[in-house]
Amino acid sequence: MNRNRLINLLKKYDYVVVFLLLVVVSVVLMSRTSYYQSSKIVSWANGVAGGWYEGVHSIGGYFDLKTENNRLAAENAQLKAQLASSYISYTDSVFTVNDTTYHQRYSYTEARVIKNSWSQQNNYIMINKGSRHGIKPDQAVISPDGIVGVVMSVSENFATIMPVLHGDSRNSVKVRRTGISGSLVWDGKDYRYAQVIDVPATHQFEDNDTIVTSGLANDFPEGVPVGYVVEAIPLSGSGFYKVRIRLATDFNKLDHVYIINNRFRDEQEKLLEKTLNEK
């Protein structure tokens, strides 16, 4: 059956087959009799083959981007954990000799954003890591560019995050240049901007002053980028500014995040609770 179909096909297109055979024969004869023609044919063939392989490589590279991005994100998490800000220093002076050791305070877990909103009054983010990966409520979350938010709820394989783009979000921040502290809030309008409040009106700002986390809370390490000052508006009669900042993290393009584990958080909270109970 297949043989009959092949024969019928050849009969139907016999003129085309004969033409192609003649073209092939002509090309072979030209390449054998003329060095110039031969080099041109070889050059053309190499160009076609090269273009083909380049196209295949480009397509393969495109499909490998996701794997490469995941690898780089995991590698960044490891590098962040090695930063000096991720360690707490203990110095014991014994017999006038300083014996200094470092204990890691913060560790980082990479995760991918699988659901995200940024245009609501109260936005939420969902990530593909949960309790089985060591994720817990109240852990801080950052992006490669800066602050993101705090873990709210956790299941076995997923977690939700309250980003700074939420009406109930409030984080302790400071001006990197001067160390003056304030509170980061969001007015629910533009996902690209937020406000820093409770900054004394006696403070002097410079263009694009950088706002970073203060490190005063138990969640974020000190110095994580938050945003850049756009304008500082004195609030009449209050003695404070309302500072408008451009957020360092672009929530519209958020892909990978890092969940921060403060290894000393439980100890700090127990000590604070004990202190309050002793009053």
How are the elements arranged and paired?
Blueprint: H1 2-12, H2 14-33, H3 35-81, E1 87-94, E2 97-104, E3 106-116, E4 125-127, E5 140-142, E6 147-154, E7 159-163, E8 171-175, E9 181-185, E10 193-200, E11 210-213, E12 225-235, E13 240-247, E14 256-262, H4 265-277
Antiparallel strand pairs: 1-2, 3-4, 3-14, 4-7, 5-6, 5-14, 6-7, 8-9, 8-11, 9-10, 10-13, 11-12, 12-13
Helix pairs in contact: 2-3
Percent helix, as a range, is: 25-40%
Largest sheet: 6 strands, antiparallel, barrel
As a percent range, the share of strand residues is 25-35%
Uncertain runs are 45-54, 84-102
Strand order of the largest sheet: 3-4-7-6-5-14
| Total count of helical runs of at least 4 residues | 4
Structural class: alpha+beta
What is the CA-CA span between the terminal residues? Answer: 97 Å
Cα shape: globular
Order of helices and strands: HHHEEEEEEEEEEEEEEH
Descriptive notes:
By secondary structure, the chain is an alpha+beta fold. Helices cover 33% and strands 34% of the residues. The chain is built from 4 helices and 14 strands. Strand 6 and strand 7 (159-163) form a beta hairpin. The longest helix is centred in the N-terminal third of the chain and has 47 residues, at 35-81. The protein is globular and about 95 Å long. The chain starts with a helix and ends with a helix.
